[in-house]
Specification:
Distance between the termini: 42 Å
Order of helices and strands: EEEEHHEEEHHEEHHHHHHHHHHHHHHHH
Strand content: 5-15%
CATH topology of the domain at 100-171 and 179-296: Transferase(Phosphotransferase), domain 1
Largest sheet: 6 strands, antiparallel
Number of strands: 9
Length: about 525
């Protein structure tokens, strides 16, 4: 494969690593004459033959996730240059990062200095805080997905990829291994429940424990055995192995490793604030790849011999800018046509910007409650969701739901759809309790008085119940989540028959839960 050119532009050079689902290569961007990293993923190894609908859906989700993650701007994230399909493979082109991955960095320094561990964790918190605000959940935070650069700064890799390849954590590949990294997997993720920022914080706790103790808190000979330990065994406090570690740091690791997501810190920012008093306050960096360097000499050039000019040149005086002409009145009809064209071309981010800019003008021209504005707002909310901007979509959906319910009543199908979409946004934002409440509030409208799905909405009722079950697992209520899925299995078998994909999937999930609970 050496020499293969991807997308007519990226020539593969040297393989850096490979796993069950793909490979990572160094490559040359022939157009810009620069070195890049190319990740090749093989969808059929996850979903089956490439002709299947599941493989096609994975391809669509892959491009969407790459587009969303490319919008996150943070110096601690690897830059995404390009993404798409090439033959049977999906490809992701990224910035080539020099340095050592965190796993190798740890292996080369034994024991790992605890101030280094604090500095690594603080940098990871800065990255997580940025991606969780989008919101994106990394899902596969581990040492192999973090690079320590020569100047000591950390770069996080594979953002968004895990959410594509791991739509259901409990799915097994043909090799029989769980997709993901069991050693870093939070209990709710291990049980196939809803994930959120709290899931990444658990993985951060595992990683921090590993840096301080030289090994992950839970290991085993099988993936199921490891997942079982995550669910039921308490972690060993790090000071049992490293007495010199500050008590505050040990306490933080234990909070991050709490089984119940609600017992973990509220956010990556809160974790950073807990780490801040432990960051190095003075001294000099030990040399290249010292992760304390960004805190000891923030934004300092590398290497340190680089000189700083005594004075910077003063820019020449410029003439004052000419007064701007008043902005032209937006053409709503033209904007709608542009949005349709952009959506047809897959340029969702640009369509979002046009819709967000045209809405105020349309409301002024046609009235806030006019059909034109209602259609635009509906398209805006749907496009925001397609673009992964759930935080911005949520208030639009709530407004649409309230307006529609005021006109047609709370049982109106369109009002219910807006509320369902709002619940999806809350779920994606990691607000599990609020999402559960919203799903539970709309579910009765899709069921009759006996709790059975109505003829007009059995699929929607089953979908909502499925989501409720995953959210219960996600918040740590395993008994209620399992009971929810068990009841749903009974009803879907009666409605669809035992061989329908949904009951088949539910049986597999419940079997996985039982395997994890029973593993030793």
């Amino acid at each position: 494969m050496n020499g293969r050119v991807i997308a007519g532009r990226y020539q593969l050079a040297t393989i850096l690593g490979q796993g069950g689902m793909g490979q990572v290569w160094t490559a040359y961007d022939q157009r810009l004459d620069r070195r890049v990293a190319v990740k090749l993923l093989h969808p059929e190894r996850v979903t089956g033959p490439s002709g299947s609908g599941a493989a096609d859906e994975l391809r669509r989700r892959f491009v969407r996730e790459c587009r969303v993650t490319a919008q996150v701007d943070h110096p601690g994230l690897v830059t995404v240059h390009d993404a798409g399909s090439d033959g049977e493979d999906l490809f992701l082109v990224m910035q080539y990062v020099e340095g050592a991955d965190l796993a190798d960095h740890l292996a080369e320094h034994d024991p790992y200095p605890w101030p280094w561990a604090v500095s690594i964790a603080a940098q990871l918190c800065a990255v997580l805080s940025a991606v969780h605000a989008v919101p994106i959940v990394h899902r596969d935070l581990k040492p192999r997905n973090a690079m320590v650069k020569p100047d000591g700064t950390l770069t996080v890799l594979d953002l968004g990829i895990a959410s594509v390849m791991d739509t259901d954590t409990t799915r097994l590949t043909h090799t029989g291994s769980v997709i993901g990294s069991p050693a870093y997997m939070a209990p709710e993720q291990a049980m196939g429940g809803a994930v959120g920022p709290y899931t990444d914080l658990y993985a951060l706790g595992v990683l921090l424990h590993e840096l301080l103790c030289g090994d992950v808190p839970f290991s085993g000979s099988t993936a199921l055995g490891v997942l079982h330990r995550h669910l039921y065994e308490p972690p060993l406090p790090v000071r049992h192995l490293r007495p010199e570690v500050p008590e505050a740091l040990e306490a933080l690791v234990l909070r991050l490793l709490a089984k119940d997501p609600q017992d973990r810190p509220d956010s990556a920012q809160e974790v950073y604030e807990s780490l801040r008093p432990l960051l190095p306050a003075g001294g000099a960096p030990a040399g290249p790849l010292d992760p304390t360097r960004p805190f000891l000499r923030p934004h300092a050039p590398w290497p340190d011999r680089a000189a700083v000019p005594a004075s910077a040149p003063v820019p020449a005086q410029q003439a004052p800018p000419a007064p701007k002409a008043p902005p032209a009145r937006p053409n709503v009809a033209q904007a709608v046509d542009d949005v349709k064209r952009l959506l047809g071309e897959g340029r969702i981010t640009q369509a979002v910007d046009i819709l967000g800019g045209i809405l105020p003008a349309a409301a002024q021209e046609h009235g806030e409650h006019s059909p034109v504005v209602r259609i635009l707002r509906k398209q805006y909310a749907a496009t925001l969701m397609d673009d992964g901007q759930y935080r911005r979509a949520l208030p639009e959906l709530r407004r649409l739901a309230d307006d529609r319910a005021a006109e047609a009543g709370p049982a109106d199908s369109q009002a219910l759809q807006f509320r369902y979409d709002a619940a999806q946004c809350l779920e994606q934002l990691g607000e599990a309790a609020a999402s559960l409440a919203e799903y539970r509030a709309v579910l009765p409208y899709y069921e009759n008085e006996n709790g059975y799905a109505t003829p007009s909405g059995p699929g929607q009722a089953f979908d909502i119940r499925h989501r409720i079950g995953h959210l219960l697992l996600g918040v740590g209520d395993h008994a209620a989540g399992r009971a929810q899925l068990q009841a749903l299995l009974y009803d879907t078998e009666r409605a669809y028959g035992p061989h329908h994909p949904l009951p088949t999937e539910l049986r597999r999930q419940l079997s996985h839960h039982q395997d994890v609970r029973g593993s030793v």
